[in-house]
């Protein structure tokens, strides 16, 4: 049985509690140089999901939306990801809650994604505009035991923009409703 989840920073409106304050503080410091100076080869994405579910790694994509101030339309780019690792670990579910067993998948941009991001960076440098950026992650996942389908899943998404900066949590133990498709 297949379930689809689309995860986006835009979900902040409905799930602000899952976005850490540290992330909001970090992201608020981004400027027009943040995107144009990224090394696409250093970008990594981690997705952690409760042990009741498993990701379909080939379906996992990173999407970037750029809205330049002087342009009336936004530019979207979707980057394919290559799985680097899959590990079982524990993640915190809240301040007063016990840690939870999760499976964490780590990804990097595929070569086409690296090339696409470099082209986008060149376009932004050429345009010389300020604007806003947002990242989202899209993935499909399956339940491990179809006889006990849960109605929600806990999810963690972290992105690393550079080796020096480390991972930025986009979602921290976000509770998402599961719908059959």
Structure description:
By secondary structure, the protein is an alpha+beta fold. The protein has one domain. It has four helices and nine strands, in the order βαααβββββαβββ. The protein has helices at residues 12-15, 21-28, 32-36, 111-127, and strands spanning 2-8, 44-50, 53-55, 61-68, 75-91, 100-109, 131-143, 152-160, 167-177. Strands 1, 2, 3, 4, 5, 6, 7, 8 and 9 form a nine-stranded antiparallel beta sheet that branches. A hairpin with an 8-residue loop joins strand 5 and strand 6. The longest helix has 17 residues, at 111-127. The chain is elongated, with a radius of gyration of 17 Å. The termini are close together.
Keywords:
9-stranded antiparallel sheet; 9 strands; alpha+beta; single chain; 181 residues; 4 helices; 19% helix; disordered N terminus
Lay out the secondary structure.
Elements: E1 2-8, H1 12-15, H2 21-28, H3 32-36, E2 44-50, E3 53-55, E4 61-68, E5 75-91, E6 100-109, H4 111-127, E7 131-143, E8 152-160, E9 167-177
Antiparallel strand pairs: 1-7, 2-6, 2-8, 3-7, 4-5, 4-7, 5-6, 8-9
């Amino acid at each position: 049985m297949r379930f689809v989840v689309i995860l986006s920073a835009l979900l902040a409106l409905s799930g602000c509690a899952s976005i850490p304050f540290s992330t909001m503080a970090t992201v608020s410091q981004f400027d027009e140089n943040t995107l144009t100076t990224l090394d696409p080869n250093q970008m990594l994405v981690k997705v952690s999901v409760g042990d009741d579910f498993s990701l379909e790694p080939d379906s996992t994509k990173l999407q970037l939306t750029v809205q330049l101030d002087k342009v009336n339309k936004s530019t979207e780019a979707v980057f394919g990801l290559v799985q680097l690792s899959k590990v079982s670990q524990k993640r915190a579910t809240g301040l007063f809650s016990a840690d939870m067993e999760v499976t964490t998948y780590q990804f990097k941009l595929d070569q086409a994604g690296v090339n696409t991001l470099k082209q986008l960076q060149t376009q932004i440098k050429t345009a010389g505009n300020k604007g806003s950026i947002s990242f989202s992650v899209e993935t499909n996942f399956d339940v491990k035991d179809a006889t006990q389908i849960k109605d929600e899943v806990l999810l963690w998404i972290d992105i690393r923009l550079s080796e020096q900066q480390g991972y930025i949590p986009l979602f921290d133990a976000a509770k998402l409703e599961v719908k059959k498709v």
